[in-house]
Prior knowledge:
The protein is of the alpha/beta class. It is built from five helices and six strands. The protein has helices at about 25-30, 45-60, 105-110, 110-115, 120-135, and strands spanning about 10-20, 65-75, 80-85, 90-100, 145-150, 155-160. Strand 5 (about 145-150) and strand 6 form a beta hairpin. The chain starts with 11 loop residues before the first strand and ends in a 23-residue tail after the last strand.
Amino acid sequence: xxxxxxxxxxxxxxxxxxxxxxxxxxxxxxxxxxxxxxxxxxxxxxxxxxxxxxxxxxxxxxxxxxxxxxxxxxxxxxxxxxxxxxxxxxxxxxxxxxxxxxxxxxxxxxxxxxxxxxxxxxxxxxxxxxxxxxxxxxxxxxxxxxxxxxxxxxxxxxxxxxxxxxxxxxxxxxxxxxxxxxxx
Length: 184
């Protein structure tokens, strides 16, 4: 089996249009994405740079940042115009009040910034994860209701954590295991 491949000319970038509210100057966004007219269109590399930029935005607190690129190929396939839609969104802060949630567990229990959304489903799942985490440690009545408040360009997510009393095993009675001693 033999393949004969003729790659042909690489498609080059044409127009680079930015729509939306990227939060930075268009030239800066293009520089961050390493895009310039005339360079080869490399979809996989561009996708990786978009993910890197979104991660940077989320680390800066812009938990709902969005960035999408739509390529439009010319009829001859030699050029690709890119329509870049960017939305920085508000600063998102996640706060835990009440009982302490260990700092090294917060991002796993409430992955708001990592997931890039503050939708109600994720917030409910986060409340449930926090409650389950404490219940697995013996806090049967653990609760972690959340609130979402938006003011002055900021979204504040608050988890009011109440772990309650910790329950411990007092004694264990084994019945019906005649072949084994109770200690086993």
